[in-house]
Design goal:
The structure holds two protein chains of two kinds. By secondary structure, chain A is an alpha/beta fold. Chain A is about 35% helix and about 25% strand. Chain A folds into two domains: about 160 residues, P-loop containing nucleotide triphosphate hydrolases (Rossmann fold, 3-Layer(aba) Sandwich); about 70 residues, no CATH class. Chain A is built from nine helices and nine strands. Chain B is extended and about 90 Å long. Classes of the chains: A alpha/beta, B alpha/beta.
């Protein structure tokens, strides 16, 4: 079976907005299948995603994401991205949006009814097809964009806060989809939801004020954050983060 | 390239973008071109040495008038003017009545409000309005739509209460003798001008001098080309903003840019811009060409007798000069739009160009070599020398400052765009 894990590699990376340093990572090598990027607001999670997509050019250093063969993934060919608020044009129907996107991405406006039909069904897009973008809730817009992301069959799917504002049912649905899809592609998910990420992620990167506070498996990160030595009872990721933040404040 | 074209064609299919990016701006821009042509025509007619065609066309305005047809429904002269002197009521003197029932005021009558209606001599106004209106009321307070108030010192002041009343007062200008005097005046001015022949203003920095008599033909061409460039630049700048705004308002910008790649997305943006400006130019250039020819005659293209390479350099310099000014204003405004000084950033290039124009124009007062050198230097400086570049075909700007201006503008424009590209990439969502 093909190894679909990806490695995130950063060397002397510095990403800035004008003179404000948004991300500064001297060295990072992280390899995983579902990579969770955690951190408080303004920690640099969205900046990291934008830099990976090539939307932000590093001020210095390098940032690359590679497959198991060591080949660099390219944003427009190998990645898909779903923003926090989802995306559909307000004044056109979901169907027209799907056609537009499929025309751009696959050169075939009917792609969503053929090869992409599975994702239309799996993410329950069918009832939304006749609705205009402005009539959709944030969660529905996110579902549409998620379906489109999967339709482009990316090797890496980047999610920005996908669980934010979802109820228990929808959270479970999305988790199930990620579980199903993780056999086909890697995920990089930025989130505040420690509980969900603890279940999904095989690698966690914790960002604090634009730099990496901890990186590794869930248990390693929990131990590092809570400063727990081996032998002590393991804390959940949520509790570890709470302990960490408390320690920071003190 | 093929992918960018494909993306462009896909984006055009979005109804909102098609309408806001092409249809509305095209209609508005063509409307502006029509206004520009109308203004040019009016200015040319006003500055003509010949009597206006409208005056010559109507040989007998006393017998037939279009304005009378519009106002009264008949072009014929009105019946003999009835003078109605209003009578003050005996009791209080404040209230007044018309002298008889035939003198009931109509909206198309003219009233002369005077201190003493009984003794006022209205002969001057009778002369003006005979055959043009039906009744001339001499009163203290009566009010048809056209009222001329004459105070105790004899100073007149007119008020009109409808557009029709404005037409009623205008009838006074269309009398036959007034028409003859206007035609004669134009002819006299024309005779004086013709007796000087072609007039040339010689300045140290202008080889062969500026042909003042040719300004009538070169100014409309230059101004119209300048305005076309301005409208095209406005369309170009707004194109980027419109697409980015529309995409970011719908949160589609980042996913789409990520899916297409930055290069392909920007290439599509430029293609949309070129399509927008191109469709405007395709529609407007023939319109301006035939419109100007119709309004001003073939002489208007005398400027085109200059060498083709010179005209090309001038056009390039004009586009780059205006382009630099608008890009500086737009970038400054975008980057500092949260600052209270954002408006200053926006008007800064206009202000600098204005100061440059004042200094440049003022230098003509002193016909010395040093002033000529100052003019050449000013013309070569971007933004400061925008007016001399704009007027280059008229003032016969030497090639060196024109070239220097063009090259420096190009370098600054390239630097400004390159320097800010990363900033825009980093602030795509904000922009």
């Amino acid at each position: 079976m093909k190894d679909i894990r990806v490695s995130l590699e950063a060397h002397s990376l510095s990403v800035r907005y004008s003179n404000l340093v948004a991300l500064e990572i001297p060295q990072l090598l992280a390899r995983g299948q579902v990579i969770a990027v955690l951190g408080h607001n303004g920690a640099g999670k969205s900046t990291l995603i934008k830099a990976l997509l090539g939307l932000l050019v590093p001020h210095s250093g390098s940032l690359e994401i590679k497959d198991s063969d060591g080949a660099c993934l390219r944003a427009e060919e190998d990645m898909a991205f779903c923003p926090e608020s989802g995306a559909v044009f307000a004044d056109i129907t979901v169907e027209a949006y799907l056609r537009l996107w499929c025309r751009i991405k696959h050169d075939d406006p009917q792609y969503y009814t053929e090869a992409g039909a599975h994702y239309v069904e799996r993410l329950s897009i069918e009832p939304l097809l006749r609705k205009r973008g402005r009539e959709l809730s944030k969660g529905q817009r996110r579902r549409v964009q998620t379906a489109l992301g999967f339709m482009s069959d990316p090797r890496l799917f980047l999610f920005d806060e996908p669980f934010d504002g979802l109820d228990v049912q929808r959270t479970n649905d999305l988790m199930e989809i990620v579980e199903e899809e993780r056999t086909k592609r890697a995920f990089l998910i930025s989130s505040h939801r420690m509980d969900v990420m603890e279940r999904l992620a095989d690698l966690v990167i914790v960002l604090r004020n634009g730099s990496v506070a901890s990186v590794g498996s869930v248990s390693k990160v929990c131990s590092e954050l809570a400063n727990i030595t081996s032998g002590e009872a393991r804390l959940s990721l949520t509790d570890a983060m709470r302990v960490h933040l408390q320690a920071m404040r003190e | 390239m093929r992918k960018a074209i494909h993306l462009t064609l896909s984006l055009i299919r979005i109804p909102h973008l098609a309408v806001s990016l092409f249809l509305f701006p095209l209609l508005i821009s063509l409307g502006l071109v029509v206004i520009q042509l109308v203004v040019t025509g009016v200015l040319l007619k006003a500055s003509s040495l010949e009597a206006p065609q409208s005056l010559l066309a109507n040989q007998h305005p006393d017998e037939s008038s279009l304005l009378r047809r519009i106002l009264y429904g008949s072009p014929e002269p009105r019946p003999a003017l009835r003078i109605c002197r209003w009578i003050s009521a005996a009791q209080d003197g404040a209230h007044e009545d018309p002298p008889n029932t035939d003198c009931a005021p109509d909206r198309l009558d003219v009233a002369l409000r005077v201190v003493d209606p009984g003794t006022f001599d209205p002969s001057r106004y009778v002369e003006l309005f005979s055959g043009q209106v039906d009744r001339l009321h001499v009163c203290k307070s009566c009010q048809p739509d056209a009222v001329i108030t004459i105070d105790s010192a004899g100073r007149p002041r007119s008020e009109v209460y409808s557009v029709y009343a404005l037409g009623v007062l205008s009838l006074a200008y269309s009398k036959g003798e007034v028409r003859d005097q206007r035609i004669q005046l134009r002819r006299n001015i024309g005779d004086i001008t013709k007796s000087f022949g072609e007039l040339h203003l010689h300045l140290p920095d202008v080889e062969g001098g500026i042909g003042i008599s040719q300004l009538r033909s070169s100014v409309p061409f230059t101004l119209n080309v300048g305005f076309l460039v301005l409208i095209a630049l406005w369309l170009a700048l707004r194109a980027h903003r419109k697409v980015l705004d529309y995409f970011s308002h719908n949160n589609v910008l980042l996913p789409l840019v990520a899916a297409c790649g930055k290069g392909r997305f920007y290439a599509a943006l430029w293609m949309l811009t070129v399509l927008r400006v191109g469709s405007f130019l395709l529609a407007s250039v023939p319109m301006v060409f035939f419109g100007l020819q119709d309004i001003a005659g073939p002489d208007v293209f005398r400027v085109l007798e200059m060498p083709v390479w010179w005209l090309l350099i001038w056009t390039a310099a004009l586009v780059l000069a205006f382009g630099l000014a608008t890009v500086v204003a737009s970038i400054a405004e975008l980057k500092h739009r949260h600052s209270v000084l954002s408006l200053c950033y926006k008007v800064m290039p206009i202000l600098v160009a204005l100061i440059g124009t004042i200094v440049w124009g003022g230098s003509f007062v002193l016909p010395t070599e040093s002033m000529a050198t100052l003019r050449v230097w000013l013309s070569a400086i971007p933004i400061v020398g925008m007016t001399p570049i704009f007027l280059a075909p008229i003032i016969k700007l030497p090639l060196v400052p024109l070239l220097v201006h063009m090259v420096v503008c190009f370098a600054l424009l390239r630097w400004a765009l390159w320097h800010n590209a990363q900033w825009f990439a980093a602030h795509l969502e904000e922009v």
